[in-house]
C-alpha cells in the first residue's frame, strides 16, 4: 500500500493546508508532529528554555484539537519528542513511505531540518516542501525571494500593484487511512512539562488564548461579526488593556491554526457587507507585514539571528526580564508578558527599544527572552521585529522610543502601569505614575538609566512633544 507522511510544524489546522490536500491521495497517511527536544533545554544566556510554559500549553491544546479533527476524518496524529529529523527518518523507513510532506518554514533550523531530511532519505523517500499559511506562495510573490526589497514599504508597493491572493481551501472531508500498526497519540502535557501543565494566564490580562483551529476561527468570527471591533481597529490598535483593542489572532496564526488567507478572506467578506474602511485595510496590511518578515527570513537564513551564539547576560538584562528597571511603563509590560504570554504591539516596541537603546543590551538577548515568553512566537516576525527596532540588518534606521513620551501618549492616566503594579495606585493619576521615583523616592528607586533626552518629560515640564513612531 502506498504510504505518505504529513510532517506538521507551524501548520496545525486542516483547512487551507496543502499537507493534507492531494491530487492523487495515498492509501495510507501518517500525520506526525515532533516537539524538538532542544526547545525544552535551558539556554545559558537567559537561564530559560526556548519554549516557555505559556506557549507549550497552547501548543498542546492545538495538538489535542488537531488530533480530534483528524480522527473525525478517519486518520490520527502521532506526537513525539526528540530530534525531528531522526524521528521522521525512522518513521519513513519503518513505513516504507513514498513521500514526506512538510511546510517550508522561515528560520535557519527549520530549513536545515528539511535539507537534512532530504539528504538522509535520498533515493528512497521524496521530500515534498510546500508553501502554506501565508498570503502569497513563492510563485505568487511580486518579486523573487533573492530580490526581496530591503524595506517593507517597497515590498508593499510591489504587492499592491499586482495583488492576487488565492482563496483559502476548505478542510478535506475524509483522509487516507492510518498506517496499520503504526503508533499514534500524544503524551499528556504533565509528563512533558509539569510547569506548563499547571500554567494559567493571569486574569489581569483580560483574555485567555485557547489553542486550536476552532478557537482561532471563533475569535475571528467574534472580532469581525459579533463585536464589529474590526471597524475600530486603526484607532484602538495602540491600546494596552482590554480584550478587543487588538485582533489577538497572532497565536493562532503563529501555530498555523489559522492561515493568513483565511483571515484575509474573512476580512474581505466583512468589507463586502460593511464596506472597506481604514481599519479593515490595516488588518490586511499587518498580514502583509507578516508575509514580508517570513520571506525576509527565508532570504537571510542565519543572518536573521545576528549570529548564532548569544552573548552573556548581565544585570541590566536580568532586571529587564524581571520587571525591575524602575520605569513603570517598561516594568508593567514585562510583568504582563511573563504572566500572560502576550503583549500589545505598542508595549513590545517600547520594551525592545528600552533594552537595546537605553540599557545598551544586545538585542538578541531580548529576542531570545520573547521566544521563551510569547504564546504567539513566530521565528520570522519575532527576530525580524527585534532587528527592526534595534536598527540592524534590513532598513537600519534609528528607531529609538522615548519611553516617557510614549507612556504619556498611550497611558496618560497611568491606568495600565497601575493595573500591573498596584503600588502605583497610591499616586495621582497621570505623569506621577510614570515617574514615581520623583514623587515618592522612599518607595520607588531611581531607574537604572535616565537618558538625558528624557529631560523634556520630567515632572513639571509641559513642553509639547511629537510621537516617536
TrEMBL record:
One of its GO terms (molecular function) is DNA binding. The keyword Metal-binding does not apply. Binds 1 5,10-methenyltetrahydrofolate (MTHF) per subunit. Its cofactor is (6R)-5,10-methylene-5,6,7,8-tetrahydrofolate; FAD. Residues 2-135 form the Photolyase/cryptochrome alpha/beta domain. Belongs to the DNA photolyase class-1 family. This is Cryptochrome DASH. It comes from Halomonas korlensis.
